[in-house]
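Trying the structure run again after the queue cleared.
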Amino acid sequence: MNIKILGTGCSKCNSMEKITLKAIAELGIETKVEKVEDIQKIMEYGVMTTPALVIDEKVIVKGKVPSLKEIKKILTK
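Done. Tokens:
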């Protein structure tokens, strides 16, 4: 599983990263989370509102910070 957090470093983007890392730890998933802050790279995903969660190169969530429960549900699909 390849996970990326797209965001320019705002508080919502940082929250998304923290919640995602916590969900991964609680689920015992072994993966690396990459944070993408380059606006050009973010736009390559077609994302205009951050933060965004990308799993295996597919944008799953954009423009909001999901709850820990929501992220766990996404990761276990």
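The first strand starts at residue 3 and ends at 6. Worth checking whether this holds up in the mutant runs.
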